[in-house]
């Protein structure tokens, strides 16, 4: 009788403990929440507004150097801002105050604040559960907001075909080392314009052996959207094959507007929704681009310059240093 009583107490304590704790932590402090097929892994954000001045300072230098160009900043929230369980909030800092501090420090740069735009759609698949990126649907809503602020046309999803890569487990399994992430694959859904008359030209960046830095390939044409098989862990590289190329899309609009996007990997998912909005789109990653950005902008008659970086990157001072480096190449 006593043993049954003890077992009941232990079961009760276990259930209370489970009710109070809706997450566990993987390697590198990764927050893991959800059950079975709906497991979600998130990087904690630990930034504070008082230490966020370096990113807007870098962007302001661009506007000072390019007064004739429309300059925009899109700070992209990461999934922890929306999906962090309440009992894990003490382990992270909110991104919204840091984001606002950055926007408040911009001069003559147009903010593209997608924080509340994305908040309206958190019941949909807008952030990967097993990867550190947002999903293409989130980028669609963000691109729509950018187009509104830039005063360019924008097509809704009826102008796109939908594609699905099934059973994807992304970067968060490797980052966290947690088997529950591996056991919760998800669908990667992306969209391609029905009008395929655009062309994409790349310049590749190859790491130089023994010398550091990168060498550039000759320009070559290729698909903007790369097809991946079901189960591909790198499905997010659907867009341009990843980060290491400079990309030029001869797009579908005829309005004299030419866009350059300076981005991290989150920004890769944006251009595909803007082919109907701009005449030309140039995409560069601040970590790999090898030319002087001012000369490049003027050489290609860029009218609009969008910085699109996620909050983890924007808060990191190395990002600001990398962006500023392009001004002085």
3D architecture notes:
There is one protein chain. The protein is an alpha/beta fold and 329 residues long. It is built from 11 helices and 14 strands. The strands form 3 sheets. Strands 4, 5, 8, 9, 10, 11, 12, 13 and 14 form a 9-stranded mixed β-sheet that branches. A 3-stranded antiparallel β-sheet has the order 1-2-3.
Provide a concise account of the structure shown.
This protein has 329 residues and is of the alpha/beta class. It is 29% helix and 22% strand.
Low-confidence stretches: 5-19
Number of DSSP-assigned strands:
14
Shape: globular
How far the N terminus sits from the C terminus, by CA atoms, comes to 79 Å
Helix content: 25-40%
Structural class: alpha/beta
The mean pLDDT is 93
Number of helical stretches of at least 4 residues: 11
The main β sheet shows up as:
9 strands, mixed
CA-atom Rg in angstroms: 22 Å
